[in-house]
Design a protein that fits this description.
A hairpin with a 4-residue loop joins strand 1 and strand 2. It is globular, with a radius of gyration of 16 Å. With about 210 residues, it is mainly alpha-helical. The longest helix is centred in the first third of the chain and has 23 residues. It has 8 helices and 3 strands, in the order αααααβββααα. The protein has 2 domains: about 70 residues, Helix Hairpins, CATH 1.10.287; about 110 residues, 3-Layer(bab) Sandwich (minor pseudopilin epsh fold). It has a 3-stranded antiparallel β-sheet. Helix content is about 50%, strand content about 10%. It binds manganese (II) ion. The site of manganese (II) ion has 7 residues, from helix 1. Manganese (II) ion binds next to helix 1.
Length: about 210
């Protein structure tokens, strides 16, 4: 089963002015595509892994043969992280989450402002490339904020990613150059809390 590049659920320009159309096109059609292509290429030499969906592949990363494991971490992680990233953003979104996700954030962080500050600090202190994540931690039965380098997936830690802010320079450099903080501040305006709430419900149900 070859992995495939998902279609964006909106136009390249849909997230403007917060994320520009050119960045969205290059990010999704070139960067994400490269992760998908390189994942499929790596799996050619690991046929026992070919039938696994991307979530299973990353959750069971320890069972991937040594020879291709790092390629799967990089490119499989890159594929899943980006597929999620497009889904948890939307035009006319942002604001403060309500419902189960809003309650889970308040329970874990105190209030929404403290949560945003934690995610931003994780984004700004991730040296080099990586992601700032909100995850579901099944062991603690709570949401948590974590930062991860490169394309390392939270799935490899037993966590379920719910919301991720891509802080690779390719995610923001055309519009924000070196100003990662400005990009993160703007990114909150496109967070699709409805989708994050759905992902939380699925994660709690163990799906
Ligand atoms: Mn990216």
């Amino acid at each position: 089963m070859a992995h495939t590049l998902p279609a964006l659920p909106y136009d390249f320009k849909a997230l403007e002015p917060h994320i520009d159309a050119q960045t969205m096109e290059i990010h999704s059609q070139r960067h994400h595509k490269a992760y998908v292509d390189n994942l499929n290429k790596a799996l050619e030499s690991a046929p026992d892994q070919a039938a696994k969906d991307i979530v299973t592949l990353l959750r069971e990363i320890k069972t991937v043969p040594d020879a291709v494991r790092q390629a799967v971490i990089n490119n499989g992680g890159g594929h899943h992280n980006h597929a999620l990233f497009w889904e948890v953003m939307a035009p006319s979104a942002g604001g403060e989450p309500t419902g189960a996700i809003g309650d889970a954030i308040k329970a874990a962080f105190g209030d929404f402002a403290k949560f945003k500050d934690t995610v931003k600090q994780n984004a700004l202190t991730q040296f080099g490339s990586g992601w700032s994540w909100l995850v579901w931690d099944p062991a603690g039965a709570k949401v948590a904020a974590v930062k991860k380098p490169n394309q390392d997936s939270p799935l490899m830690d037993g966590h379920v990613p719910l919301l991720g802010c891509d802080v690779w320079e390719h995610a923001y450099y055309l519009k924000y150059q070196n100003k990662r903080a400005d990009y993160v501040d703007a990114w909150w305006n496109v967070v699709n809390w409805k989708k994050v709430d759905e992902l939380l419900a699925k994660a709690k149900a163990g799906k």
